[in-house]
Amino acid sequence: MSDPLLKIEKLTVALPSAGDRVNAVSDVSLTLDKGEILCIVGESGSGKSITASTVMGLLPSDQLKITGGSVTFDGIDLLALDENGMRKVRGARIGMIFQEPMTSLNPVMKIGRQIEEVMEAHGIAREKRQARAIELLQAVGLPEPEAIAERYPFRLSGGQRQRVMIAMALALEPDMLIADEPTTALDVTTQAQILKLIRDLQRERGMGVLFITHDFGVVADIADRVAVMQKGVVVEVGPASEVLVSPGHPYTKSLIDAVPGFREQASAGSTEAPVLKVSGLRKVYRTGGGLFAVPKEFVAVNDVSFSIARGETLGLVGESGSGKSTIGQCVMRINGIDGGKVEFNGSDIVNASGAALKAYRAQAQMVFQDPFASLNPRHKVGRSIMAGPLAHGVDTATARSRMEQLLKRVGLDASAADRYPHEFSGGQRQRIGIARALAVEPDLLVADEAVSALDVSVQAQVLDLLREIRDEFHLAMLFITHDLRVASQICDRVIVLHRGRIVEEGEVTNVFGDPQDSYTRNLLAAVPGQKWHRGEQQALPA
Amino acid sequence: MSSPLRAVLSRLVKSVAVVLAIVLLNFLLIRLAPGDPASVMAGQAGAADQQFMDQLREQFGLDKSIYEQAWIYLKGIAQGDLGFSYRQNTAVWQLIAERLPATLLLTVSAFIFALIAGVVMGAIAAMNAGRSLDFIISVVSLVFYATPLFWIGLMSILLFSVYLGWLPAFGMMTVGAGYTGWDHVLDVARHLVLPATTLGLFYMAVYARMTRASMLEVRDMDFVRTARAKGLKSGPIVRRHILRNAILPIITLAGIQAGQLVGGAILTETVFGWPGIGRLAFDALLQRDYQVLLGVFLITSVMVVIFNIITDLIYRVVDPRMGASA
To answer: What does the record say about its membrane topology (chain B) (predicted)?
Structure first.
């Protein structure tokens, strides 16, 4: 057999001395053949992105040093190349796309120009560039490529921008494409389209693709081979069909077990009277406007009604822009509303003020998406948790003892109270966020994408914790998520939202098991790794 | 109506309101200070008896109520009449028109110098962050930032005019030389160098610091990584991607400061004997020459407003996202 397209041998990259381990990546050996998709899968901090950046020569050299090993691409020793030599490989022979399509394009340069720049950098004649850019935009499935080429990135959606990134990466027909979590920031239906596009282009052009992801569903859909990384080490490599179906390494096994699947057994549900009742909710956002301009209106939520009882979890699912977070904010009274009613324990919340509003603030609490941004970095954790009860007139001693109990309850040591948020991992911070929400003894918990930023194994633990505290504290929970698998795991009932309207609602196993609306069906069909979830992915004969 | 045109129009209407409010506020504030032109003039004339002062007050309209005076003044402004300086026996508009070109020449030169030198220095510092060149630029800008303008002015006069004799220290042109044409231009330019750099150095320091910080921030952004992944050389990456985006906050800042430069030239004009608006205001203040002072305030606030509108328009061109959201 001929030499592989890419050969990484015993690659070691050192972390700065302050890091929690010596090497970001140690002794990593991988190969990628022409026309093959290799997925590197792992949790945050596993070294998968650093491995990809090393191949591309994009490591921040002041922080990360390559201390050993080699990277050979098509017979070229990449690590031996100087900056100019590496520059000629980048973009021309190896293309790369990134996780955040919203920020990966220069905001003040037209799309067409950004694509032409690749060709300009590698000496393609000016006359040919423009036509080729249009051709590429067409090839990645963008409508009206001529018009798109003249637009600035902010006019394009996330999916469209990722297509532009792909067009840019493929401009010079590279032999290899590195895709670093290219679909993580996208909606599930967009993700499915981009995955298909990458696979189609890869087959058409016979490229080798190094695909970095944390999502085993994506791996199942796209990978020929899989390498699993943990803490900078490759723990398992093999054909996708083998690794996914019968993982050899215990870490791979634990990761796969943590992937949420669709629940088949219906939950008991709650028979109590509803605590939260929302009817005919409408929210309109107005932008612009002024002396001579009419404001633009965007109906974010339109005629949405639901109720939640204690001990019950209601899921709000939908893609970005579906209005699910807005509903959460209206319920919490972070946002005002433009129509309808929000009632809590029978009393109106929308017009509540003074003491009534203050009482509601204690009864309804929120857990946020980003555990890094939602705790004050300059307050010790104990202070953050106690702030709520103290504001509601609880005395310090009671607040403190409750804070300590809660820390223990969410699985942290009581000593955590005297530390600052940055000393904790993402999962631990989310536990702190939950303890903070529980401190005022609420009846209603609104969790907005509360597990979306977490690694899959941590996600499973936090979901367990949320379920336990809901039962223990007898809470009503409004669970907002874009991830249907997560919703299926934790919710009793679910509402599917599309452009601010409810398209389907019901018991979660019914909605996901037998969807009635075509939008719900599309959403479900787009969830990656379906065949694998259903156990239809067979191990290839050895 | 097209969106940029509508934006400009809306800005103009708001600006007129802002300028009117400033004029009224200034008018009332000035009257809070003790003394009036009549008492100063009477004092200087050595005839501070009540009858003479009353006469003066009646002549200047100072005997009317303050609101009445304000109303008369505003009516005048609306008709393009900035009032009359009884001290100098000239229409205020004429006084300002005589001085404004000199001030504009000084401040615009200083501004352009500050902007170009500041951005270039900041960019060099950012691209050499942590190295000695960065350190030198940072120290130099900090020195100019921290040193009072008049001190820099005096020291540069000492060095370049007194000791080295390279440049003239005072005024806008060589008195009595009677230069014409090209010689005149060169003469004014030579006189301009010291005051313009003195005034510009402080702002240069600000722009250098801002540009450096802004570029370091942009340097770590995702699209710069994309640019590197495309195989671009470092020149285009710095120019088209880093600097092009880093310049946006500088434009906002420059717009705010461009307006202030007109008013901020008072010290520089005084130190270098530059015959501009600043000195006119300074003298008017000492003499309680209200009408002149108010006229200067009006002109500077109009300048601020004009520069803000220009900044807005430039911003719409350099940042395509702006036009869409408004």
So the answer is: Multi-pass membrane protein
The CA-CA-CA angle for residues B252, B257, B260, to 5°, reads 145
The reply to whether domains A1-93+176-259 and A274-529 share a CATH topology is yes
CATH class of the region A1-93+176-259: alpha beta
| Predicted pLDDT of residue A541 | 39
On whether any CB of chain A is under 8 Å from the CB of B222, the answer is yes
Per residue in B71-88, pLDDT (tens digit) is 888 888 888 788 888 777
Residue A293 touches chain B, beta carbons under 8 Å:
yes
Instruction: State in words which class domain A274-529 has.
Output: alpha beta
How large is the ipTM?
Answer: 0.81
Structural domain including B184 reads: 93-325
Residue A184 near chain B (CB below 8 Å): no
- Total of domains in chain B: 2
Low-confidence ranges of chain A (pLDDT < 70): 1, 18-20, 288-293, 536-542
Q: Is the dihedral of CA B283, B286, B292, B295 positive or negative?
A: positive
3-state secondary structure of A22: coil
Neighbours of A464 (CB within 10 A): 13
Are B321 and B195 part of one and the same domain? yes
Segment A496-511, tens digit of pLDDT: 999 999 999 999 999 9
Residues of A in contact with B1 (CB under 8 A): 292
B252 and B288 share one domain: yes
Q: Are B113 and B204 in contact (CB under 8 A)?
A: yes
Question: Which residues of chain B are within 8 Å of residue A108 when distances are taken between CB atoms?
Answer: 244-245, 248, 318-321
